[in-house]
Amino acid sequence: MKLTGVELRRISLPLVSPFRTSFGTETTRDALLVRVESTEAEGWGECVAMSGPLYSSEYVDGAIDVLRRFFVPALGAVERLSAIDVAPALAKFHGHRMAKAALETAVLDAELRAEGRPLARELGAVHDRVPCGVSVGIMNSIPELLDAVGGYLDEGYLRIKLKIQPGWDIDPVAAVHERFGDDILLQVDANTAYSVSDARHLARLDPFNLLLIEQPLDEEDILGHAELARSIKTPVCLDESITSARAAAAAITLGACSIINIKPGRVGGYLESVRIHDVCVAHGIPVWCGGMLETGLGRAANVALAALPGFTLPGDTSASSRYYQTDITTPFTLDNGHLPVPTTPGIGIDPLPDHLAAVTTSTEWLPLQVVGSD
Ligand code: OSB
Ligand code: MG
Class assignment of domain 121-340? Predict the structure, then answer.
């Protein structure tokens, strides 16, 4: 297919409650949607970059700029484009994986829609529904946290992830463990808030039988994670550090992690995500699907990925209502702790035009030259 134009659409969606992590507090999801038009079909991709470069170096304005100036023109020049050509065509541009992922996903969606094939089948999914966990932000007090966790367990979430940082770690984990017991699946996420000299402190989480501790140290500190993994009982899981299948293989070989969180945006797309999944399966490393507060568009594609066989732990693929009062798509709802894998062609979901229009803050249309037309 040949791209005929790309729309960059920025939306602003209020979160149902503030989401606080060690890197900041979000009250609204400021997100970028990419819609491609081609000679065959249209397709959608959600860019997971956030407003500021706090989770990683990427941010929404940067993604818009690099897409407009470099990525869209580079793809526009390809006469016979398939999703597998996107990463090679953009490889000379360093970094900006979230922006690349959004564009690749939109091309993949268009291609699969044109061919009538669902994304889940294309990626190698083996389940028709996926088990879901929920990521619980840092709260003002432990009673408030216990209420939030209790509410999510009542809704049916199968695993709880607590965001932690220095000053909000051992006590909240102990309180949740004491209240809800050893039966619940519990894990923590530090978003790089510690250093390797905190190993003794983090070993105080050992008695709570946590499933894992996610990204305790700086994203570049692979050897630090390996050292920490040797000195605590809680399994170390990497998020921010895993930027590619090559990075995953290196981290595994160096003993820096025994579990990996796969986020398609962070690694440049769903095709690279499958390669990471395959590397992990070959090494016996369990994986789970992370989240970036996606709308229904990004969620649909994440759920398809989470249905691959190596995804043996519940993901941060929560129901739409965990994030948004009104999503831009038909909402994903929890059924016995699971979300259904979309079955219709492409990512399998479309934005609802009225909902989309109501939250759009800007749109930009980038036309592409079609050879032979004037
Ligand atoms: O580290 O997993 C993370 C949200 C935004 C940025 C980073 C992270 C998160 C989450 C929420 O933990 C996951 C979700 O429910 O989408
Ligand atoms: Mg994380």
Answer: alpha beta
What is the Å distance from ligand 2's center to 191 Cα?
6
Centre of ligand 2 to C-alpha 300, Å, is: 19
Residue ranges covered by each domain of the chain: 3-116+350-367, 121-340
Same fold, 3-116+350-367 and 121-340: no
CATH number for the domain whose boundaries are 3-116+350-367: 3.30.390.10
Q: How many CB atoms lie within 10 A of CB 147?
A: 12
Check if 219 has its Cβ closer than 6 Å to any atom of ligand 1. no
Q: Which atom of ligand 1 is nearest to the CA of 191?
A: 1
Query: What is the tens place of the pLDDT at every residue in 216-262?
Result: 999 999 999 999 999 999 999 999 999 999 999 999 999 999 999 99
Per DSSP, what are the bridge partners of residue 367? Answer: 5
One-letter amino acid for residue 44 of the chain: W
**Hey, which residues are catalytic here?**
163, 263
CA dihedral of 110, 366, 303, 153, whole degrees rounded to 10: -150
DSSP letters, 280-315, are: HHHHT--EEE---S--HHHHHHHHHHHTSTTB-S-B
pLDDT 10s digits, 260-298: 999 999 999 999 999 999 999 999 999 999 999 999 999
| pTM of the predicted model as reported, rounded to 2 decimal places | 0.97
Is residue 66 within 8 Å of residue 38, measured between CB atoms? no
Angle (CA) 214-232-257 rounded to 5° is: 45
